[in-house]
């Protein structure tokens, strides 16, 4: 099974020069989002397994096998949280971008259903998703929320982001107006155990969830997107937001085409 998406043409090349890059929210994933997250989960002691389903005919060459579904699944030792690499499985999209990682947690082991799920597309900076996973792993009760929406907004405004002038209690944007965090209606197919989110009629209000995205040029498409179900604990979203808005530089060999001219870079070593 090939964990990287077949259309990923910017896989990192060890021959490319290495740079310290900022801001991180526009730095992309260096073409290593799978490896970065997998290495972290292994370090945390999560167990992994690969699920491959396909169609095979007699005397078929291995390279001609048709894989219908493939998932790499990582499960925490207490089995209360898990992460799935779903990019090879043609997942649904956020902002026209395919989902790469889905992270979920449940209240206890008596139920097989997730209490909440969060979704991340390619080019979410790997450091940001790693910090989210470290925060998730450190919690005894991964499905119990601590604090309110202000935690998320305080995390980004502490790094110089600006409150949304139209919704100061529900959103913020970076100083270049390229990246956003917003609390509002979640997109279709975002899984959540809150029954109100599942059974609400189209004209009824549903529980709000956090969305984050980068759109370097208005109308030119998204660089990345992330979506958090309504039941994702606020402090975990705040950990994501804090890392996303951090002013600390990150190491990169591959820079996104849409943001190359907006990044500050310095040779590493």
Automatic annotation (TrEMBL):
Query: Where in the numbering of this chain does the DUF317 domain appear?
Result: 76-143, 201-250
Q: Name one Pfam family in it.
A: SPDY
Entries under InterPro entries matching the protein: DUF317_SPDY
Look up the domain of life of the source.
Bacteria
Q: What is this protein called?
A: DUF317 domain-containing protein
């Amino acid at each position: 099974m090939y964990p990287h998406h077949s259309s990923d043409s910017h896989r990192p090349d060890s021959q490319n020069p290495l740079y310290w890059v900022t801001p991180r929210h526009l730095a992309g994933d260096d073409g290593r989002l799978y490896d970065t997250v997998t290495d972290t989960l292994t370090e945390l002691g999560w167990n992994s397994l690969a699920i491959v389903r396909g169609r095979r005919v007699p005397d078929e060459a291995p390279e001609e096998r048709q894989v219908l579904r493939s998932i790499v699944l990582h499960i925490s030792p207490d089995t209360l949280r898990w992460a799935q690499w779903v990019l090879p499985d043609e997942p649904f999209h956020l902002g026209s971008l395919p989902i790469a990682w889905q992270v979920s947690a449940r209240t206890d082991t008596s139920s097989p259903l997730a209490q909440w799920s969060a979704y991340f597309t390619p080019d979410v900076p790997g450091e940001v998703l790693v910090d989210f996973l470290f925060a998730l792993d450190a919690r005894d009760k991964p499905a119990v929320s601590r604090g309110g929406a202000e935690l998320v907004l305080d995390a980004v405004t502490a790094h110089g982001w600006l409150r949304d002038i139209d919704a100061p209690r529900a959103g913020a944007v970076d100083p270049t107006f390229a990246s956003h965090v917003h609390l509002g209606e979640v997109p279709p197919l975002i899984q959540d155990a809150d029954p109100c989110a599942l059974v609400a009629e189209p004209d009824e209000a549903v529980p709000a969830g956090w969305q984050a995205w980068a759109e370097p040029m208005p109308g030119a498409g998204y660089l990345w997107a992330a979506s958090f179900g309504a039941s994702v604990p606020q402090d975990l979203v705040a950990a994501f937001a804090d890392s996303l808005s951090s002013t600390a530089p990150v190491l990169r060999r591959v820079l996104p085409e849409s943001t190359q001219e907006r990044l500050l870079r310095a040779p590493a070593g």
